[in-house]
Amino acid sequence: MTRLVAALVATAATAALTTGAAVGAETLDTVKERGELACGVTTGLSGFSIPDESGNWSGLDVDFCRAVAAAVLGDAEAVRFVPLTAKERFTALQSGEIDVLSRVTTWTLTRDTSLGLNFVGVTFYDGQGFMVRKDLGVDSALELDGASVCVGAGTTTELNLADYFRLKGMDYNPVVFAAISETAQGFESGRCDVLTSDQSQLYSLRTKLEDPGSAEVLPEVISKEPLGPVVRQGDDAWFNVVKWTLFAQLNAEELGVTSENVEDMKDSDNPSIKRLIGTDGDMGEKLGLSADWAANIIAQVGNYGEMFERNVGMDTPLEIARGLNALWTNGGIQYAPPVR
C-alpha cells in the first residue's frame, strides 16, 4: 500500500509539473495572439520609464520593451505599459498580469532562485549611492551617522542601506516609501536628510527637484546593481526571445548596425551582420520568430548604444556617461554571445 501511494503521489506531482510547464510555456504564443506585449515599468522615473502628459511612455526600460515587441510582433508600438511599485512588480509578473518586467530591477541570487523568475541580462550596470542637500555640509557618506534616510520599500536598496551603516558602525533613521516618486517628495519636503537609491535614479530624481542645484550626489558607491528585464521561470521559449532581444541590440552596436543604416546593411558581405539581420541563416526560426526579427528591433528602436544615449546619455538631462555600460571593446563590460 505504501509503495502504491508513493507511486500515485509521484505520478500526480509529475503531472502537475508537466501541466505547469505547459501553461508557463505559452507566453510567446499568447503575445502573438493578443497582438500586444504587456510590460511592467516604474510609476515614473526619468530616463528609464516615465509617461508624458499625454500618457506616452519613454525611457531605457520602455525602449527595451518596444524592442521585444518589434522582435515578436514586428511593431515596436504594440506595447501596453503597466506602472508598478517595487512591491507590486514581482507579483504582477508571477500572476501573468505582465509578460516581462523592465523596471530598474536588480539581479540577485534570491530573486533568481526563489521567486520563480529569470533575469534575461543586464541593460544597465549601476550602483547604490546617496544624495544630500548641499546645505547639510556633507562631503562623504561616512559623515551620515545619525541621519534620516529616505528609501524605497521592498528593494535591495533598503537591504544595502542597512548593511552599509552596520558595517561602518553608524546609526540612521529609515524613512520608507512605497514609490520612487514619494521617496523624492519626502527628500524635497525635508522629511529626511539623505535620499539613497541607485546612482542613475538619484541623477534622474535630482532633475525633478524644484531646485536641482540644491542637492548633490556623494562619491561613494556602496553596491553592485546589475539592472535588467525579468520573465517567469518555466518558459524557455519566451526567456530566449527576451534574452536575445538584448543580445541582438548589443551585437548590432558592436557590428556598427544602426537604425539609420540597417536597410543598407542588408547588402553587407559580413557573415555576422547577415546572420543578425536575417539575410542568411535561420536565426529567427530558432526563436520562433520571423527572419527579420533583429532587423525590426534595430530599425524601430535602435542598437543598445542608440537606446542608451537617447534616454540617459550625455546629451540628456541625466548626463550619464557609458562607463561600465560601454561595450567590452570600448572599455566597458557590456558583452553579448554571438548570433550564429
**Tally of discrete structural domains:** 2
In the CATH hierarchy, the architecture of the largest domain is 3-Layer(aba) Sandwich
How large is the count of helical segments?
A: 13
Strand content: 15-25%
- As a whole number of angstroms, the C-alpha radius of gyration is 22 Å
Order of helices and strands: HHEEEHEHEHEEEEHEHEHEEEHHHHH
Distance separating the two termini: 54 Å
Envelope shape: globular
Helicity range: 40-55%
Structural class: alpha/beta
Assign the CATH class of the largest domain: Alpha Beta
> How many DSSP E strands?
14
CATH names the topology of the largest domain as D-Maltodextrin-Binding Protein, domain 2
Mean pLDDT: 92
Concise summary:
The chain is an alpha/beta fold and 340 residues long.
Describe the structure.
- With 340 residues, this protein is of the alpha/beta class.
- It folds into 2 domains: 30-123 and 228-318, 3-Layer(aba) Sandwich (D-Maltodextrin-Binding Protein, domain 2); 127-224, Periplasmic binding protein-like II (D-Maltodextrin-Binding Protein, domain 2), CATH 3.40.190.
- The protein is 41% helix and 16% strand.
- β2 and β3 form a beta hairpin.
- The protein starts with a helix and ends in a 28-residue tail after the last helix.
- The model is unreliable at 1-24 (pLDDT under 50).
